């Protein structure tokens, strides 16, 4: 464990509880990410675990069953969930489908689903190459 992590009391198993991470700005405001401007609270008013635990927005975003559009129908949504920041930027709804994903749910043959992690990496590369064009 890194010294800073040991000092904060953070343990690797906390990662599951804290999901994919959050963003704390220089004034203490907390957001789901640096690209998703939905303020969850402020660490100068409440502790970070309190802000996190009280954020219904995070619970919704981490629940694949709440996703909409293609992300809602996608067989990979339990491991991907798409970019909630992109969904929000384009539609105003952080639960909407990721507008830059090239994947059409249901198009991967069932026998290939066992190799889901490799397929997902390919999708991420496709999304990245679309973004940098
Ligand atoms: S692969 Fe695409 S459609 Fe499926 S959850 Fe991820 S972003 Fe959404």
Description:
By secondary structure, the protein is mainly α. Helices cover 39% and strands 5% of the residues. The protein is elongated and about 50 Å long. The protein starts with a helix and ends with a helix. Residues 1-18 have low confidence and may be disordered. The structure holds iron/sulfur cluster.
- What general outline do the C-alpha atoms trace? elongated
Residues in helix, %: 25-40%
Radius of gyration (CA) equals 17 Å
- Run of helices and strands: HHEEEHHHHH
Mean pLDDT, rounded to whole units?
A: 82
Q: Class by helix and strand content?
A: mainly alpha
Keywords:
disordered N terminus, 133 residues, 3-stranded antiparallel β-sheet, single chain, binds iron/sulfur cluster, 3 strands, mainly alpha
Layout of SSEs?
Blueprint (H helix, E strand, L loop, with lengths): L2 H6 L5 H4 L5 E2 L4 E3 L9 E2 L5 H6 L2 H6 L7 H5 L10 H8 L24 H17 L1
Antiparallel strand pairs: 1-2, 2-3
Bound molecules: iron/sulfur cluster (SF4).
Iron/sulfur cluster binds next to helix 5.
